[in-house]
Structure formats: structure tokens, C-alpha cells
Amino acid sequence: MRDGHDGRVRGVWTVEQVRAAEREVMARVPDGTLMRRAAYGLAVHVAGLLAGRTGGVVGRRAVLLVGAGDNGGDALWAGAFLRRRGVAVTAVLLSPERAHPAGLAALRRRGGRTVSASDLDGALRELGRADVVVDGIVGLSGRGPLRPAAASLVGAVTAPIVAVDLPSGVDPDTGAVDGPAVVDGPGSVDRLAVTAALTVTFGALKPVHVLAPHRCGPVRLVDIGIGDALPAPTVHVLDDADVGALWPVPGPDDDKYTQGVVGIAAGSATYPGAAVLTSGAAVHATSGLVRYAGTAADQVRARWPELVATGSVSDAGRVQAWVVGPGLGTGSDGRRAVRHALAAGVPLCVDADAITLLATDPTLWDAREPGVPVVITPHDREFARIAGDVGPDRVAAARAAAARLGVTVLLKGHATVVADPDGAVLVHPSPSSWPATAGSGDVLAGLVGALLAAGIAPLVAAGAAVHVHGRAAVLAAVGPGGAAPIGASALLAAVPDAIRAVRAATVS
User: Fold this and answer.
1) Do 468 and 495 touch, CB atoms closer than 8 A?
2) Does residue 37 contact residue 22 with C-beta atoms inside 8 Å?
């Protein structure tokens, strides 16, 4: 996992860590240096968006929504740089008396115009003519939703919005949006926070960029020279090359046993499809051997003849990891399967009904041998059963649960958080919502189990599985005719292509 600062940063830093690094660097460079570096990079990306949409930048209109403080200063300086490129720039000042003085002077020197937000008709007229709007309302110090005056203006925007550092109204450290905001102005969009077409951030990625990808849009990082002052990151993000490099592929000396044998305890008379999907994911993940144990043995064997299927976990034979829970049911058979898997002394992925069983009967944990790695894969409601409400800070919640339970927690969501008991965290900012379909979690559990059986550490196994799962969902949904809804079977079928795609990234 790389921690470089070249635009492919894989580390994520808290706001306080970034602020401390900025203070250290500002103490040894001329005043205003970091802001102008940030603003120049911001202007480059705004111009790039304009050129991509309209074929050029000269004569295009940019409107800056400018709050008080440094975030507004970044926007104003960027406006001055855009004026050099021939862009018509108007700054709507939400607090004219508190606008960044140097940035405001720079914009006016370059012929940029200003209008006060109190002149609502004038501000709305400018927004209506904009080709792009720059959100410089609130920066990293801001908390809470948009205030009514800002929300009225944001609600009127129809052009793409470029957020400065983060979309205003979104918490920088949690990605959460609190509300409600009461607004009487025009427009009908979500007024609690900005939803950006593009976010340009400076120096380092912050948690908001990976925890609220649907708010941020694509995130572009501008190097402002603080990399050497940053401490170790608190969170990491895996990319294609990371995942491709660790994904197991057979070597010349491998056989079906050395590649990893995974056991699947899933499905029931009510949910046989869960067994088919989980087993299929393990097969597609290049497991050397998949052993299925459960009441859906006939259905699984018919769909995946290459695996070994039995009716009971006690008859499954030796495995190197277990997946237990998808569609299993919460009756006595499910309870026995969970207890058997926990007592097997091999790494374990606990999903779905198995999580519910552990929540309702914590004594099942007693069957676990000390030190045996366990990955649990809850969504928010399952998490609440076993660890309490998630709350707004998903990273903190997953970390606390991992430490208390002594397991790796894979907290599913639009931004999936994977936390180890030692506090290490991976976040996967989903590029889409396509994985949100029935049976999708069964596929994910099978992928996690296959990687655990291959000997990959739980944190990385869970993170890599989430990455390939998301890749497969996008590949399945976006075909020649454009994006279309998918089911879990289509997602599963795309897993081999997703693995090929991440493997290809290691040589590109």
C-alpha cells in the first residue's frame, strides 16, 4: 500500500493531522504560499472540467460561492487564475465583510466581479448563467449542514459543482451529513450539503473523500508540499495494483490443496440460492478446492460440479478456512454449523445469519480457539445487533467493535470500512451502488473466505474481496447498452473479469 503524494495517494489523514502538517510547512515558507499552490491546482482542474464539457475555457462562466476563511480564499485565488485563462468569473460573497482580503483583491485585480449573497436576485442570475460553480463555502473547519442562505444558493445551481477541499455541509472526518436545514429559497435539491461533480483537495486525502464518495464525486489531489510533514496515515485505500499483486494465482508447484481449501456452510431449504452464490464466488476466486456443507448440497453440486458437496459440516473434511452464515437460518442447524466452524481452528468469515446467531447467543464465541482469525461482515443493522449503533463515525465504530470482539470487522455500506483489532483500517469508497442487490453479500463472503484459505491476512483479505466485488458489480452493470440494474448472479459472473482487471493493473 503506497503512501506517496503524487496524485495516487493511498493513505488517508484526519483533518487535525493535515492541519498540523500545514502549520509546520507554513512556518518555513512565505505567507500565502500554500494557499496559492492550492488555488492554482484548483484552477487547473476547474479549467479541465470546463474544457471537457464545452471544448474550451475562454468566455466560459465560473461562479464562486465564497464563504469566510481560507476555503473561500482558495476559491477567490483560483478565480484570479481562471481570469488569466479568459474565464468570466463572478464571486458570490456569503459574508462580504469576512471574505479573504488577499484573495478578493487578486480576483478584482484580474477583472473578476463580485456580488453579495444578500442580493439574492443578482446572485441567482449569476448562478443561472454559470458553466461551472466552485463551492468555497465551508472548509475543513466547518461542521453541520449548510446554513439557509448558502443552501438557497446551492439549491438553485444547475451547473456542475467543483468542491474546494470537500463538499460544504459534509463532515470532513466522518463523511456524515447532519440536518435538517430549513430553507425557503428556490430549487428542489438536497439542501443539507453540496453534492459535487468533482472535489479538488490539497496535500492529502481526508476521511470525507473515501467515506462520502457519492457527495465528493471524483477526487483530485493537488500537491502543496506538505507530504514530508505528514505522520503515518490512519486509514488506507487499496487500488487495483494493490489487489492484483496480492490476489492468489497458481504457480508451477501448486495443486488444489496448496491454493487453499475453503469450506462453505451456507443456504437452507428456504434460501438455497445463498449457498449457490457463496460457493460460486469461492470457485471464481481461484480457490484450489471448495467444500460445501449444508442442506442445499444438491443445488450447489448441480451448479458447481467442480466442488465437493456434503450435507453436514461434520462430513466436510479438512479446510483451510470456513465461510458460515449466508442464508443459513437461525435455528438449531445454523447454530451447530457456527459452533463447528468456530471450533475448527482455521480462519473464518462470519456473515448474515451467523452474525445474528452470535448476537443472540454470545456463548457461541466460546467455541473459538484463541488467536484464530475471524472476519465478520455486517451491514448496519447486523452491526447494531452485535456491536451497537454505527452512528455517524463509521471508522470509529468499526475500530471499536474490532477491538472489543477481537475480530476483523467488514462494515458494509456505500463506503465499506474494514477494521482490525489492532486499529488498522481500510476503506473502500464504492464507485457505484450496483452491489446493493439481494445476494450480493453472499458473493462477498465467498470471496473473503477464498482469500482467507489462501493464507492472506484478514484485513487485507477482506479489503481485497470488497475491491474485487465492487469491480465486478460495475463490470456487470455497465454493458454495451449503458448501465442497467443487475442481480447477484450477474455480479458473480463478472468476478473473473474483475480479477483479471486488477491483475492487469500490476503490469500496466
Assistant:
1) yes
2) no
CA gap 179, 168 in Å, rounded:
13
Residue with cell 504560499: 33
Dihedral Cα 17, 20, 22, 24, nearest 10 deg: -140
- Reading the block at residue 286, the C-alpha cell is 481461484
HSE-CB at 19 with a 13 A cutoff on CA atoms is 9
Local structure of 167: helix, strand or coil: coil
Rounded Cα distance, 61 and 65, in Å:
13
CB-based burial label for 370 (10 Å; 0-12, 13-18, 19+): exposed
Domains and CATH numbers, the chain: 11-233 (3.40.50.10260), 240-504 (3.40.1190.20)
Dist CA 110 CA 128 (whole Å): 23
Residue 344 has which C-alpha cell?
Answer: 475448527
Comparing C-alpha atoms, which of 374, 364, 375, 366 is closest to residue 336?
364
Report helix, strand or coil for 271. coil
Query: Nearest-CA neighbor of 417 among 454, 453, 392?
Result: 392
DSSP 410-457: EE-SSEEEEE-TTS-EEEEE-S-STT-STTHHHHHHHHHHHHHHTT--
pLDDT per position as a tens digit, 49-91: 999 987 889 999 999 999 998 999 999 999 999 999 999 999 9
Residue 432: phi and psi, rounded to 5, are -160, 175
The Cα angle at residue 135 between residues 68 and 153, in degrees rounded to 5: 90
- Cα distance between residue 64 and residue 88, in whole Å: 11
Beta bridge partners of 93: 66, 116
Q: Which segments within 225-320 are labelled E, that is strand?
A: 235-236, 261-265, 289-293, 308-310
- Number of residues written out for the chain: 508
- The DSSP output letter for 315 is G
Question: Is the predicted pLDDT of residue 346 greater than 90, yes or no?
Answer: yes
Tell me the pLDDT tens digit for each residue of 453-508. Answer: 999 999 999 999 999 999 999 999 886 665 777 899 999 999 999 999 999 998 76
The DSSP line for 332-375 is HHHHHHHHHHHHT-S-EEE-THHHHHHHH-GGGGGGSPTT--EE
What single DSSP character describes residue 69? S
Q: What's this model's pTM, rounded to 2 decimal places?
A: 0.91
Rounded to whole angstroms, how far apart are CA atoms 434 and 485? Answer: 7
Alpha helix stretches (DSSP H) within 129-206: 148-155
**Whether 45 contacts 163, CB under 8 Å:** no
Give the chain's end-to-end CA distance (angstroms, integer): 17
Does the pLDDT value for residue 363 go beyond 60?
yes
